[in-house]
Amino acid sequence: MIRLPPFELRAPRDVPAAAALLAAAPGEAMIIAGGTDLLPNMKRRLQTPRVLVSLRQIDALRRIDAADGAFTIGAGVTLSTIVGRPEIREACTGLWQAAAQVATPHLRNMGTIGGNLCLDTRCTYYDQSAEWRRAIGYCMKKDGDTCWVATSSPKCLAVSSTDTAPALVALGASVHLVSAGGARRLPVVDLFHNDGMKYLTRRPDEILTDVVVPDQTGWVSRYWKVRRRGSFDFPTAAVAVAIRRDAAGIVTGARVALGAVASRPLLSEQATADLVGRPLTDEAIEAASEAAYDIAKPMDNTDFALVWRKRMIRALVGYALRDARGDDMRATRLAIARQVL
Q1: Which helix or strand (DSSP H or E) is residue 91 part of?
Q2: Less crowded by CB within 10 Å, the N or C end of the chain?
Q3: Confidence at 335, pLDDT banded by 50, 70, 90
């Protein structure tokens, strides 16, 4: 049995108290919400905080507010709660699909939107027991100085595995961050660095308090992913798209975000350029798919061959855009879920 290391648990009742606890133990305190990622990491000694600051008792973080078509989703809202909200499914279909495909129902009951956004990057050489990692001399992300994915790499190449981040990037969402020194708001796309170790721009003393999804009137969003099994597994390639068209069918707004092919979600500006200003034809979709394919940089650090994962980005963008166009993609989605394509 792998046991947790010793730690102190603090359970503040409001955000200022939680921020004060983080400020009082710099470098030694970490936030815990659902704990579905942090606790297994602690058992493997990947993260060993002396103090855990629990957000479970902060009611304000478990609210979903809707106003003028926008949603403000508290960071402590569980993924199951999001999946159970029909208004989110209708207005923000891509986010609903992403949340519904995270892990298993049991984990979605515990896992939160804030936790999934801040999910640790993953790698074959990192997500192992302490004994396994010791046997290879550890890796750059934890206790070592070599990235075993690419031994000459000057930085860690662990991969982003969050489902909800690409979906929120495609929706143009933003987050609020609060610390003892103040608060700030930034787009979800700017919450991440393309670095497997320093993958968040959120500082260790900051709390992600809520996610703001702007009014999606006129937008259609979709999320597609590939994983080894139909449940539980992290994405090995993922695509989120959001499309807005006018009455004549011309695309007036578009975002194409990729997941699990870099250390951060990637937003393809070229794909947007290939879509906006023209009808959503097969030719436009093919151009956007190629643009997304060009920026996808999967590495040999997770399931499936990296060459195949890169090719799947091209296919997934095409599937997602056709889905957003209104094509019947049920058979294709089922085939991907069964891994028979």
Answers
A1: helix 86-91
A2: N
A3: confident
- In whole angstroms, give the CA distance from residue 126 to residue 334: 31
Assess if residue 96 is contained within a domain: no
pLDDT per position as a tens digit, 128-174? 999 999 999 999 999 999 999 999 999 999 999 999 999 999 999 99
Assess if residue 69 is contained within a domain: no
Identify the CA nearest to 60 among candidates 212, 165, 210.
Answer: 210
41 pLDDT band (50/70/90 cuts)?
A: very high
CA gap 260, 145 in Å, rounded? 23
Report whether 236 contacts 107 (CB < 8 A): no
Q: Are 217 and 39 in contact (CB under 8 A)?
A: no
- Count structural domains, the chain: 1
One-letter amino acid of 213? V
121-153 b/e (C-beta count within 10 Å ≥ 16 → b): bbbbbbbbeeeebeeeebbbbbebebbbbeeee
Is residue 140, in this structure, part of any structural domain at all? Answer: no
Residue 208: is it exposed, middle or buried by C-beta count within 10 angstroms (0-12/13-18/19+)?
A: buried
Q: Give the three-class secondary structure for 296.
A: coil
The answer for residues whose C-beta is within 8 angstroms of residue 198's C-beta and 6 or more apart is none
User: 27 lies in a domain?
Assistant: no
CATH number where 297 lies: 3.30.390.50
